[in-house]
Specification:
The protein has 742 residues and is an alpha/beta fold. It contains 22 helices and 29 strands.
């Protein structure tokens, strides 16, 4: 066990219990096999390695292109799940399972919308008894869509429902351990730990044997928010703990030669979710396992934000070739989850089809086991500057507005300011919390000097720290004072470029196909203030590879050459290429797939299908979903199911309308207690259904108010936010403008 990936580890690493270790800055976390107390079965642990001692294991077949991870086939009714089959789309019903006809009707709507499997909550024996009626009713109506029982806390219900449903989802954190408790447990005697594992095996084995006998499938579905107290004591709420929790159950399945199961590693935080699935896949490679993966971001929320967070997590993994079945969890009617599912699976299938002309590269510097943003130097002010250029980029992540000359000329001055997110005082623009940082004329043009009114508008914006960026050729032909000139990386020779008249800063654009020498030239330029660009544009050439992989290649060269200039991803979609929903999902997957690895410091996205104001809002949502820059309240809301104790869609809308103006504050809205406290570890405040008609309020993991009547709970939540000093009254337009002006 001291040998990991061919390397000898010190004896100290083989301690019988595991301590929580965190990576030093500049180091990496390495997974390591360590003996379980009282057993020879390996657990996962971490050691901190110096940057010069990096040994990164594989988590997918190829990180430079989309290559589907090879898995065995798992049979779920008439559906096959695995790498030899298309990615399967599924959803979860919201009806009370005891209402048989309502459940049948909703299942049929979902199947008609494209669901290939449907999950149904089975919280007790009464719901399990209804399961056979539901199954037979669907068969009678000509629907053979496989049904999945969602089990928490109740092994007896799992055994009973296996008679009717084709698949059983078990949560390792509460199947045998009960409700999650945030307790630190010290195992001074290894036998104590082993006894708990023996109890799990005794409880879970009957279901394994029954599913093996009947040809049923199991999903071992770990949730970040519902790890057992035992797992929390060893690992905390971490991806390592999530993987080990699932492996405990998988080893029991394998002990009984049962292999018709899949894994999932869900979290409400897309970064945690992505890291957990990658770690799971990596550990399966080490073990020689080939079980399929079910992908999902839990408690993603509703509308645009829910689709964005799901796309960041699911999309990044699909583009890595991971994932065999998908659910997009939304706080909406379940049939509405299938359209984004279809867009995501199609994106993964297209990428997996490959690109004949993809530029090959070897990736050495990205470590999937840790999230660490690049250290960059933002633009600095220089003596003699006519404008304040420090606002070109934002320290937490930049949003650049994509604009064309024709579009700018077609808007009134006030419309343009509104689309850019500016506030105004007596007609003059001011930057607000969600104003674009800069404007990039992506058509290659420049506001013409012949249009004095348009030039005056953009001058006002530049004086308000919203900068204008145009191609060098256009500025040479028609100079514009204070504009930032863009040069192609391939055109630079290592010396400071001769800027167009009136320009004091420049930017550099690359498409990801350039060679290492070009980036080394750029790195040398960055060492001198006169030849250092203010910002870099990553505008991928997607004819030669997927956007995510093309940019991975570019960032490998950026990192290797030591470039510390902020990089903004530019994703421009052709006319008719995407709809509004597809735009959200594509940007989340293709750009977010880079941002979750710390590759990039900003975004500039555009499609003619989406108005500029919407593109700006989506861009800020992308940064917030990637845990970079908060410009609004973060909501973590579950998608509803038969356990839900209030109308989630109605309550979520009510809370969002009254608390959505609190950037930096996160609110969890949970229909029941199943994942509530754990997933709320990622939230400041929690609103959880505690009993029919009653709500419990949380601060972090701690319940602070119980049994509040539903009709009073929203007001009580606001009072709680006020009590903890996180509230501010929503400003009127006039008050906002006066505050900014002051």
């Amino acid at each position: 066990l001291r040998t990991v990936l061919g390397r000898k580890l010190p004896s100290a690493a083989m301690a019988p219990t595991m301590s929580k270790l965190s990576a030093r800055r500049g180091g990496v976390v390495r997974c390591q096999a360590v003996s379980k107390p009282g057993s020879s079965t390996p657990l996962l642990n971490t050691v901190v390695a110096a940057p010069s001692d990096v040994l990164i294991p594989a988590y997918c077949d190829d990180t430079t292109r989309t290559l589907r991870r090879k898995t065995r086939t798992v049979t779920i009714g008439n559906v096959k799940v695995g790498s030899e089959h298309p990615v399967v789309k599924q959803t979860m019903l919201t009806t009370d399972t005891r209402d048989v006809q309502a459940t049948i009707d909703e299942a049929k709507r979902c199947a008609d919308a494209g669901a290939e499997m449907v999950r149904i909550t089975v919280q007790g024996l009464r719901e399990a008894e209804a399961a056979m009626e539901i199954r037979n009713g669907l068969f009678k109506d000509g629907y053979d869509t496989p049904l999945i029982a969602d089990i928490h806390f109740n092994p007896k219900a799992a055994l009973k429902v296996a008679d009717a449903f084709e698949k059983i989802r078990v949560n390792p954190g509460n199947y045998a351990d009960g409700r999650k408790k945030f307790e630190e447990i010290t195992y001074e005697d290894p036998a104590d730990y082993q006894r708990e594992l023996d109890d799990i095996e005794e409880t879970f084995t009957p279901l394994v044997l029954k599913c093996k006998e009947m040809g049923r499938a199991i999903r071992i579905g770990t949730n970040h928010g519902s790890l057992s107290a035992r797992t929390l004591s060893y690992f905390g709420d971490t991806p390592k703990g999530m993987v080990e929790s699932a492996f405990e159950f998988a080893r029991i399945c394998r002990k009984h030669d049962y292999h018709n199961f899949v894994f999932s590693m869900k979290a409400s935080n897309p970064l945690v979710m992505v890291q957990a699935y990658r770690l799971l896949a990596s550990e399966m490679y080490k073990e020689g396992w080939d079980y399929p993966l079910h992908l999902g971001v839990t408690e993603a929320g509703e509308g645009e934000d829910g689709r964005m967070k799901s796309s960041i997590g699911i999309g990044a993994l699909l583009l890595d070739g991971l994932g065999d079945t998908v659910r997009v969890s939304l706080t909406e009617a379940p049939e509405l989850e299938l359209a984004p599912c279809a867009v995501l699976t199609a994106l993964g299938e297209k990428a997996a089809a490959g690109y004949e002309t993809a530029v090959p590269f070897e990736e050495k510097l990205r470590d999937f086991r840790s999230y660490d943003r690049r250290e960059v130097e933002l633009p600095e002010q220089r003596e003699g500057d006519s404008l304040d250029y420090r606002g070109i980029c934002h320290r937490d992540g930049s949003v650049f507005g994509s604009l064309t000359v024709d579009a700018a000329a077609s808007m009134s001055e006030s419309q343009l300011y509104t689309n850019l997110g500016c506030k105004t005082v007596v007609g003059m623009p001011f930057k607000d919390i969600a104003t674009v940082d800069s404007i990039y004329f992506t058509d290659g043009g420049v506001p013409p000097s012949s249009n004095a009114e348009l030039r005056r508008t953009f001058r006002r914006l530049m004086e308000s720290n919203v900068h204008v960026i145009c191609d060098e050729a256009a500025l040479t032909a028609d100079p514009m004072d204070g504009a930032v000139a863009v040069y192609n990386l391939s055109a630079l020779d290592g010396s400071a470029p001769s800027l167009p008249e009136g320009c004091e800063r420049f930017a550099v654009r690359f498409d990801g196909t350039e060679d290492a020498a070009a980036f080394e030239t750029l790195a040398a330029m960055c060492k001198s203030p006169e030849s250092r660009p203010a910002v870099l544009f990553a505008q991928a050439d997607t004819s030669k590879g997927s956007r995510m992989h093309t940019m991975r290649r570019a960032f490998e060269l950026v990192k290797a050459s030591g470039i510390d200039v902020p990089v903004v991803h530019v994703a421009l979609y052709e006319d008719g290429e995407v709809t509004l929903d597809e735009f959200v999902i594509r940007t989340g997957a293709e750009v977010g797939g880079c941002l979750v690895d710390g590759l990039g410091e900003g975004v500039c996205v555009k499609t003619d299908a989406v108005p500029m104001d919407d593109a700006r809002r989506i861009s800020f949502g992308l940064l917030q979903g990637c845990r970079m820059r908060n410009t609004k309240t973060e909501f973590i809301s579950c998608p509803s199911c038969g356990r839900t104790l209030f109308d989630l869609q109605e309550v979520t809308a009510q809370i969002a309308s009254r608390t959505g103006h609190l950037p930096g504050v996160s609110v969890a809205i949970m229909g029941c207690i199943v994942n509530g406290p754990g997933e709320m570890a990622d939230a400041d405040f929690g609103y959880v259904g505690g009993a029919p008609g009653k709500v419990d309020l949380y601060v972090g993991k701690e319940v602070v108010k119980r049994a509040i009547p539903n009709e009073e709970a929203c007001d009580a939540l606001i009072d709680l936010i006020k009590e903890y000093g996180r509230w501010k009254e929503p400003d009127s337009e006039e008050e906002e403008a006066e505050a900014v002006a002051a």
